[in-house]
Design goal:
Blueprint: H1 2-30, E1 35-37, H2 38-50, H3 56-63, H4 70-82, H5 88-97, E2 104-111, E3 115-116, E4 119-120, E5 124-131, H6 132-135, H7 141-149, E6 155-160, H8 162-166
Antiparallel strand pairs: 1-6, 2-5, 2-6, 3-4
Length: about 170
């Protein structure tokens, strides 16, 4: 009887590994000079949501790995908070346990100039460098909100910071 449960667990683990690795490979193939465009970021989050039975432990095991880039870690963080509804404090603890909490990402925003009395105002560029741990706190809520709504109001590009690449 134990072998039946063990086999079931192993099969579930393998299925989850394959499904999540497909998302990781998609993100890797979508990176352009270390940057990920908003549409690919949001597609990765949506693809994770399509995986049946994915849980926070799966995210921790497969996406909070130091072997992955900070962007993959961020996708796991964002998915955990927005789709799995894991409290940010629990996500922060998991990031620290996996030793990826200090990794930084840079969110580059381009706000297109709006029209004002027949004239188009200048485009605005903004860049925010923030650690994964800071994204689980109140100061990261605004950045997560921008990432969540995607390119509706701003166009963004995610970049792994140089500090992360040196780790």
């Amino acid at each position: 009887m134990l072998q039946g449960w063990k086999a079931l667990y192993m099969n579930q683990h393998r299925r989850m590994a394959v499904a999540i690795s497909d998302v990781v490979e998609f993100v890797g193939s979508s990176l352009n000079n270390g940057s990920l465009e908003s549409e690919y970021y949001l597609k990765a989050i949506a693809d994770l949501a399509l995986i049946a039975d994915i849980g926070f432990l799966d995210v921790q095991f497969f996406l909070f790995s130091r072997n992955h880039s900070a962007i993959i870690n961020l996708i796991g963080l964002h998915y955990s908070i927005s789709s799995l509804h894991v409290p940010p404090t629990e996500v922060s603890k998991a990031l620290q346990a996996c030793q990826v909490a200090g990794r930084k990402v840079c969110v580059n925003l381009l706000k297109l100039g709006r029209w004002f009395y027949g004239f188009r105002l200048r485009d605005e560029h903004e860049s925010r460098k923030i650690s994964l741990n800071e994204l689980t706190m109140s100061e990261g809520a605004e950045v997560l909100a921008i990432l969540n709504r995607g390119a509706v109001h701003e166009v963004f590009r995610l970049r792994v910071s140089l500090a992360d690449m040196d780790e």
